[in-house]
Amino acid sequence: MRQVPDKLRRHRRPPAPVVVPLVAVLALAVTAAACTSSKNLTAAVTTTTAAPTTTARPTPTYPLPPQTPISVPQSTDSSTPDGSGCEPASSTALTDGIWFGVLKTVDPSTNTIGLDLACYFSARPSGSTTSGTGTTTTMLNDYTITNNNPTVYTLKVAPQVAVLSLADSGTGGDGEFNPTTTGIASANAILTDQSRKYVWVQITHGYVTVIQGQFTP
Fold first, then answer.
1. Residue 187 lies in a domain
2. Looking at the domain assignment, is residue 148 inside a domain?
3. Given strand 144-146, what is the order of strands in its sheet?
4. Do residues 82 and 75 lie in contact, with contact meaning Cβ atoms separated by under 8 Å?
5. Cβ(114)–Cβ(153) under 8 Å?
6. What is the pLDDT of residue 162?
7. Which SS3 state, helix, strand or coil, does residue 166 take?
8. Has residue 74 been placed in a domain?
9. Percent of the chain scoring above 90 in pLDDT
10. Does residue 149 fall inside a structural domain?
11. CA geometry: angle at 190 spanning 188 and 193, to 5°?
């Protein structure tokens, strides 16, 4: 066998390490990991941005007005006013009941009326009259109206409120009821046609369902 001289052995280079394939494998692994992370991130974002559910608001309901004129509860003594009285528990609101007063305003744009609360005594006999700057008015037909409370209450009105205004009796006063009308705008007849603006209002579930004129000869 032929031997290689030592001089030639010393100058022979060792084989180069295999680097390129290893780098390629690492690059593929990093790319695969990045794709997996991107998919997971997209799934997470999709889950957290779902549209919230909404609940429809219920349509408000209003009490229906009666079909006939209301009967005002009358007191049996001269010290208690008719209806629900004239001293409400709140100074800014009236509870359900039948209240007497002077109709001051009618506002169809807000479905409200303004009522100057007063007291109506059907059992108090007439005889003595407080006049001048006093707030008591005594009428001739055995009833008395007093108004010691200057507050004008703003009352919400049902859309189909029943309105019963009074017709001119022909003697300068207000007589029998006009036909029943509905809707708050109908109450303007009381402000424009009724010589006295005395009314009873019936409040049901927080809404005025009746505006009814009071006969005063």
1. yes
2. yes
3. 119-121, 144-146, 136-138
4. yes
5. yes
6. 95
7. strand
8. no
9. 38
10. yes
11. 100
